[in-house]
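Q: Joint fold for the lines below.
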Amino acid sequence: MGRAPCCDKMGLKKGPWTPEEDRKLLAYIQQYGHGNWHALPSKAGLRRCGKSCRLRWANYLRPDIKRGKFSLQEDETIIQLHALLGNRWSAIAALLPKRTDNEIKNYWNTHLKKRLTKMGIDPMTHKPKNHALGCDQAKDFANLWHMAQWESARLEAGRG
DNA sequence: AACGAAAACAACCGCTCGCGT
DNA sequence: AACGCGAGCGGTTGTTTTCGT
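A: Joint structure:
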């Protein structure tokens, strides 16, 4: 059986990571870095595919990650960035340096989308669904949306 | 106290893109 | 120029935790 394992074929582990696996991956990357995800698992003594290792590192083990609850400010930033960029989670995460795309995506899908919907904002367009002009909250978000449009225009103009 | 439903969180999958050959 | 391979991305599914009955 001297054939190089092609990701799916051989007995590669899937599912949740154990503390043991985390330690191995962390230790390896701290010592050698991650030049080559494909080759990494066997070097690090892990029965995982490189993809799985990369994901685990990027979303959990990387040192520059802030874990835990999102602050109110982060909420607003994410909402604004989503208005600007749409579902480009990696782009959004790049502007929230301590958060991962996966975490932001999950947070958006489970919390923010619903919250916006409840407030009468369409989470896709970020526009108010009803034009309740007397409602302060709706005004706030209309204003926010307006600001987002400006930022979007500026980004477009400055791109290059 | 026990069970089922819903939410929150973690990880996987398929696809595309970019790079090297 | 075409192809193959690996990395990264976004959508989706699976698993754990919390909540309501």
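Q: Anything notable?
A: Chain A has seven helices and no strands. Residues 15-16, 36-38, 50-51, 54, 58, 87-90, 101-102, 105 of chain A lie near DNA strand C (CB under 10 Å from a C1').
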